[in-house]
Design brief:
236 residues, alpha/beta, eight-stranded parallel β-barrel, globular, EC 5.3.1.24, isomerase, TrpF_fam
């Protein structure tokens, strides 16, 4: 969607869903690679068909992946961007950016679920450090414990959108800021109203079952975001 809110359909596990997202007007698809806590995680070999076709630019999501393996992933998949989950060492970001200058590096910032305490100073410093390290985008998402294990993204839970907006205002990010975490066609309108992000990033909110997208949900989501984009253009 040109000149409007961008959309990334994440947790993509198959080429059919990547093409569905592209046909409906999404800007990016995301695929989780070698991440144990995600039921949508793909091996490097399983991800190759998605990234070799890339009907729209593809983002590879990784969590605590060794630097050598991350370099191999970039070489083999040639993603538009690599998205880091969890708290990433800024020196790692700098080295990877230098080694692969044509690959964008995106950083997830996982806030607690809405209603839980947020250490605002900690997250503000983290965001500032990531920007200084050279990330190309920030994604505010939700981290939560499931079955005794911390899960970073794909939780279906919202973080506090007011905190996201407060962080955006405090940092005045020079890079695009995406909103993720528990977003669906039912609440994407209020999510946009609360934060006015660069784009919306979601996974479980447009699924039929984990790992399989629902065409009607994607169509509904894109329709609402198009309407919001049109209204924003009228105001500007």
């Amino acid at each position: 969607m040109k000149n409007g809110y961008k959309v990334k359909i994440c947790g993509t596990t198959n080429l059919e869903d990547a093409r569905l997202a592209a046909d409906e007007g999404a800007n990016f698809f995301g695929a989780v690679v070698e991440t144990d806590f995600s039921p949508r995680s793909l091996s490097l070999d399983q991800a190759k068909p998605l990234f070799s076709a890339q009907p729209i630019p593809g983002v590879a999501l990784i969590f605590n992946m060794a630097e050598k393996r991350a370099a191999q992933l970039i070489q083999e998949l040639n993603p538009f961007a690599v998205q880091f989950l969890g708290e990433t060492d800024t020196l790692f970001i700098r080295r990877l950016k230098k080694a692969f200058p044509s690959t964008e590096l995106w950083q997830s910032v996982h806030l607690p679920e809405a209603g839980k305490h947020v250490d605002f100073a900690h997250f503000k410093k983290a965001v500032e450090d990531y920007i200084e390290a050279g990330v190309n985008a920030l994604i505010f998402d939700t981290a939560a414990v499931f079955q005794g294990k911390m899960k970073f993204g794909g939780t279906g839970l919202m973080c506090d959108w007011n905190i996201v907006k407060k962080l955006m205002d405090a940092v005045r990010s020079p890079v695009p800021v995406w909103l993720a975490g528990g977003i669906s066609p039912e609440n994407v309108g209020p999510a946009i109203d609360a934060t006015d992000p660069y784009g919306i990033d979601l996974c479980s909110g447009v699924e039929a079952i984990p790992g399989k997208k629902d065409p009607l949900k994607i169509s509904s989501l894109i329709s609402i975001i198009r309407e919001k984009s049109a209204n924003r253009r009228k105001l500007t």
